[in-house]
Amino acid sequence: MKNIKILENLEEIQSIDDQKKSIDAHRPFSKELENKIFQKLKLDWNYNSNAIEGNQLSYGETVAFLNFGLTAKGKPFKDHLDIKGHNEAIGFMLQLIKENRPLSESDIKDLHKIILVEPYFSKTISPQGIEFEKEIKIGQYKNSPNHVKTVSGDIHYYTNPEEVPFEMNNLLEWYRNAEEENLHPVVMSAIFHHKFTSIHPFDDGNGRLARILSNFILLKHNYPVIVIKNRDKVQYYAALNIADNGIYEDLVKLFAENIGYSLNIMQKAINGENINEPDDLDKEIELFVKEMKIQNTKIVDFEKDRDFLIDTYVVGFVEYLFPKLEKIGSVFQKSSVGYLGTRIPLALYKNFLEEIRIKKFFFNDNIELNIFISFQDHLENKINVEFELKILIKNKTITYSIEEWELDYYGMQIIDSKEIFSNSYNYSYSPNLIYNEAASEVVNYVINFIKNKTKKG
User: Fold this and answer.
1) β-strand partners of 378
2) I need a labelling partner for 87 at 20 to 30 A (CA). Which of 108, 267, 298, 300 fits?
3) What is the pTM of this model?
4) Does residue 294 lie within any of the structural domains?
């Protein structure tokens, strides 16, 4: 617990505590104001938590269904049931808080029953790649293993069914100890969330239930609910993946950032401002454009926009990604970055950013840069990770890709290579969204490569 408490000193935690203190000065809120705030956050929560799991209802359809009972034509009936169950589970969770009693396994199973509404069959794929129909039972721990396929194609296994009762008991014991030691509610909520998803105690509904339990912890301590946005799910999954290695900082920061959004909504309501975010509709339009693959028609002027393009899509991305790679580099004897035939320690990556700004990388009206990244001599296993990060900027799109390299015994010649991923974006996407998605792909690739090689070793 001592190592975890260090996370309480994060700048992001201090920031939301200051923000919360300012808001708490306005308490007690009127019943009308309190209901207005929670209604907004609950709608966002219902929509995003289900959308992350693949629910097809749009934000507007979710609002229409929950507020007016209107079903969306052409959308699966189960998607409506999932929204209804999730909304009712929130109500049950609020009652648990009102009763002010310890959280139990029985409560967790009851919440699961409410979320899933009724038993059903779902198509699933066995680790051997065989597709079959599996019965999803409600309120009962899983009786067969569950797993998920990672971006690298590897299978990530959760806790074995026979170990679930023991691990759930350990989780609740950890939670009681965290409460007794006054662990910061945001840190507690984030780590509890990860521990629960690592167990994955049920056949389905684990993600939605984990987010409800996280908010149970926050609300008990008078923090607003956290709403993980569907648009941020790549970053969310990446933070959970990193936490698998005992590194919780990214997940805690993600929680703090999103709780900050909820506090902003509260502050707006206190100020009498409109809390129906103007970008709610914009988010639906952006999603529609993305689904329809409509490309922005803007064509950049490479000569005129060169500095902006380099600073935003090369330097900005490197500054976002490389600190995360540095953390991974701590489990290797050596990590380095190479460019234009030069190789330097990864920790010194900033040394070549200015050179990137002054050099020209033009090839047939493109801006192209290839960065070689190497992690050598894992501390516990004799494995290396070698790959090339490619950044290609064209007149309408930016593409980030990874090519995995296999070097000879001396590390001098490339024996084989294969493309791991390639993501393209047009200039309508915000740079932060691009950084989140592309960096998450890189980080997930490296982590899963190490895990896979470690298992084989």
Assistant:
1) 332
2) 267
3) 0.64
4) no
Residue 62 clears pLDDT 90, i.e. is over it: no
Other C-beta atoms lying within 10 Å of the C-beta of residue 26? 13
Q: Are 326 and 249 part of one and the same domain?
A: no
The confidence score (pLDDT) of residue 416 equals 67
pLDDT the model gives residue 351: 80
User: Which residue did the predictor score with more confidence, 435 or 167?
Assistant: 167
| pLDDT surpassing 70 at residue 153 | no
Q: Are residues 355 and 237 in the same domain?
A: no
Average pLDDT over residues 320-344: 87
Mean of all residue pLDDT scores within the chain: 85
- Measured CA distances, 348 to 374, 377, 387, 447 (Å): 13, 19, 18, 22
Peptide bond connecting 28 to the previous residue in cis, omega within 30 degrees of 0: yes
What is the domain range of residue 332? 302-456
> How many domains, the chain?
2
Q: How many CB atoms lie within 10 A of CB 281?
A: 12
Instruction: Note whether 51 and 155 are same-domain residues.
Output: yes
